[in-house]
Fold this sequence. Notes:
- There is one protein chain.
- Helix 5 packs across helix 9.
- The chain is α/β, with parallel strands linked by helices.
- Strand 1 and strand 2 form a beta hairpin.
- It is globular, with a radius of gyration of 23 Å.
- 38% of the residues lie in helices and 18% in strands.
- The structure holds 4'-deoxy-4'-aminopyridoxal-5'-phosphate (PMP).
- 4'-deoxy-4'-aminopyridoxal-5'-phosphate binds next to helix 5.
Amino acid sequence: MPSPALTRKPSTAAPSPAAALKQMLARRQNLMGPNAPLFYRQPLVLARAKGVWLHDVAGRKYLDAYNNVAHVGHGHPAVVKAVQRQMARLNTHTRYLDAAVLDYHERLLDKFPRALGSVVLTCTGSEANDLALRIARLGTGHQGVIVTDWTYHGNTASVSEISSAYNPRPVVPHVRYVRAPQAGGDFVEGVRRAIAYFRDSGIGLAAMLIDPVFSTDGLQAVPKGQVKQAVALVRAAGGLYIADEVQSGFGRLGRFWWGFQSHGVVPDLVTLGKAMGNGYPLAGVVGRRKLIADFRREVMYFNTFGAGHAACAAGRAVLEVIEAEDLLANARSVGAALADDLRALKDEHSCIGEVRGQGFFLGVEIVRGRDDPAPDAERTAQVVERMKDAGVLVSNIGRHDNVLKIRPPMPFAARHARLLVRALDQSLRPAR
Ligand code: PMP
């Protein structure tokens, strides 16, 4: 007779949600290694998304005020259909000729000033920045790069060297860090010092590469004229200006298609990503024709998936939806009203400091109190968690981790903004 223990059927009862989550976390750590970034103390397990809403596996819905990749809205039917159709018909690479691929390049370039006349497509923002650095270094014959000192530009070996936030700061002779512009700051002076260092060390200056809204730096208001002044210094020293529009591009700021337009100076190279394919990997570098031609002549740059047929179909659909749905105007008007409503919350909540940003790229600074403007990272992290519990997703940024980052998909409407403000108001009140 086998023992009862051997004949007992395995339990078929589903694990409790908490046990299932614990299992999944353990499995993830085992497969992906420890410390792979993850949001929230109780991480979300998402099942589907549409427009500005995300739904988890338990059927709970969350208002998305964070995800900028789903630029024209999660699962936008025009983008989905365009990609599906193209995948079914043909999806190869740029070593074959294709008019639709060229059409997309044209439509994209139409959104830029005439001085920027060529484009090289890639798959990720990191690749775009990596490529921009190569183009700048080859074009100038120099290696030195100036970047801000609390920022993120991507994950390749050379781009990690210019990404100082959330990484041990790389100590390499060809990168110099400056503090992002802010009232009373010394951005322009920092750029001047970095240029002098590159001159004196013989390294020479290739470029200044910046995110035009300095988002990871904390989305500080940029004093008028500072970027323009810094670019003039860079150019006088023979360097190029690279604008990283991976976060700020495609109309997110409402007033413009590109963040660099808020500074009144046209870059030599612009890098794009995230929003560009609405979730289909698509990124790239737009630049001065001669710079890109000189690079192309020297380097056989080929990117298997960059500018593939399906990627270009996604990109084209995104541009069309932005225009058809007038999403810049939406970001401008709803973003402005949302910023006003967030400012109005200051009367109730003394921990709200500055409300910054424009369009659908807003930051709410969380400080100790009205009389103590010290950053309060702990409270900020708590607010992010509580807002999630209230059904609204946001995040935090800044060198002190105390700026709530509000960066919703572009179809975010006034009614969504009201839900967000209510959730923030609730999340700042003492827990009941
Ligand atoms: N530049 C900026 C400003 C970014 O925010 C990011 C990604 N967060 C990147 C570049 C890198 O893009 P990707 O993750 O697509 O490589």
